[in-house]
Amino acid sequence: MTAFIQARGLRKSFGTTDALRGIDLDIHRGEVIAVMGPSGSGKSSLLHCLAGVLVPDSGTVIVDGVTVSALNEARRSALRLTEFGFVFQFGQLLPDLTAVDNVTIPLLLGGMKRKQALKEAHGWLDRLGLEAAAARLPGELSGGEAQRVAIARALVAHPSVLFADEPTGSLDSLAAENVLTAMLELVRQAGTTLVMITHDPRTAAYADREIIVRDGQLAATDRVGIS
């Protein structure tokens, strides 16, 4: 069976620093992957190359039959808008927009009318237990609430892949578990592929597979338990 995401021979350097040194990786549709490794090992560079944020110096990235690494910036941006979702460690919500308006952003950029976008956004906030917070600004939300808004924004356009970079890294243990549980429930219901960077073995234990990156190379790829 052809993998949903295929990476072959990925190399990426920044000046004299080799961030990726020939990575080969297959990820299957609907799979939840935890990417682990020490700081500076190349985890974020790998995620950004898979997501088309960075173009590898050599090698290829193919997602659902599309050679992402060969696309120009405009086409990669369009792909990120329509097919990929992103969740970052600190959410990166726009501070002057309410929670619901933050969630509408991908839909409005995709051409959806505001009334329909608001309806979709409210639905996702409700699924994440945040409908009561829809009118609040990010600064009025707890860390866990803000991160769930970021998850709603990432999933509202029904992406085929969700890329998450330390999505619970800034949260306390209880908030982290709640956010992770909510995110995994939604991606598994939708069959969304999840590629998640984490430093926390407890977070990685929720994944179908754990990938260890060290010195720009894959050190291991193992099955792990699913909670």
3D architecture notes:
GO terms for molecular function: ATP binding; ATP hydrolysis activity; transmembrane transporter activity. Helices cover 34% and strands 27% of the residues. The protein is of the alpha/beta class. It has one domain (31-41, 73-223): Rossmann fold (3-Layer(aba) Sandwich), CATH 3.40.50.300. The chain has a six-stranded mixed sheet, sandwiched between helices. A four-stranded antiparallel sheet has the order 2-1-4-5, covered by helices on one side. Helix 5 (143-155) packs parallel to helix 6 (173-190). The model has no long low-confidence stretch (mean pLDDT 91).
Beta strands, count:
10
Query: How many structurally independent domains?
Result: 1
What percent of the residues sit in helical stretches (DSSP H or I)? Answer: 25-40%
> Strands of the biggest beta sheet: in what spatial order?
6-7-8-3-9-10
Strand-helix topology:
Blueprint: E1 5-14, E2 17-27, E3 32-36, H1 43-50, E4 58-63, E5 66-67, H2 73-82, E6 84-87, H3 99-109, H4 114-127, H5 143-155, E7 161-165, H6 173-190, E8 193-197, H7 201-204, E9 209-214, E10 217-223
Parallel strand pairs: 3-8, 3-9, 6-7, 7-8
Antiparallel strand pairs: 1-2, 1-4, 4-5, 9-10
